[in-house]
Specification:
mainly alpha, 0% strand
Length: 78
Amino acid sequence: MVVLIVAIVFGSRLLRTWMVTRNQAGRSRADDQLIGSMQAEINRLTERVQVLERLVTDDDRNLAREIDSLRGRPASRI
């Protein structure tokens, strides 16, 4: 019984190691570059979504004040 349990554990670890190695060996430099560019695009889009969420949930006065400050004008009074 103990031998069977040890064999199962050893076999599962061997299978897991083989699968991880196979997945890493299949990636090329082009794949890594594509993954990197996709991750950069995801990060950029995440930042844009955060800005849009803030704009949607922000108070109108705060939004107007922030837009005016970005334009370099004194904040208008609403």
